[in-house]
Amino acid sequence: MFTRDGNLFFPIDTADQVKTLPVGTYSVKVDPMRGFYLELTENFKVPARIYGNSDKFVDRILTTFADRPGSTGVLLEGEKGSGKTLVSKLVSLKANIPTLIVNTPFHGEAFNLFLRGIKQPAVMLFDE
To answer: 75 in helix, strand or coil?
Structure first.
């Protein structure tokens, strides 16, 4: 459960709750007093023209996700410019579920509990 404060979504256990996150792109943040929360950010944009096999990879990822009852993890690796970021953006946009971006090296039990508290399907992008 989350409570919304502008573009910020904080996990809560009280009556003022948002039961599910709306489709959108969120950054995982931490406040020293309130703990971990999600900040709604701008959705990804992709170029009008896409080269290569990115759509094939995206379709395979989304099909595998839909076919599995549990979580699905994908590790994108390759040379600079090979399309990792493009594939990530396309998965985020085509999945039609919330996307959570973790681009800070969080760790520890509080962070793990925060992620486990998200009970709906979501794309999670861990950026170096």
So the answer is: coil
The closest of 46, 50, 65 to 124, measured between CA atoms, is 65
Q: Are strands 35-41 and 99-102 parallel, antiparallel or unpaired?
A: unpaired
Between 68 and 51, the higher pLDDT residue: 68
Closest to 62 in 3D by CA, of 37, 32, 87, 85: 87
Query: Taking the C-alpha atoms of 80, 83, 84 and 89 in order, what is their torsion angle to the nearest 10 degrees?
Result: 140
Cα–Cα dist 80/89, whole Å: 16
Tens-place pLDDT, residues 99-113? 999 999 999 999 999
Of residues 88, 66, 68, 67, the one with CA closest to residue 77: 88
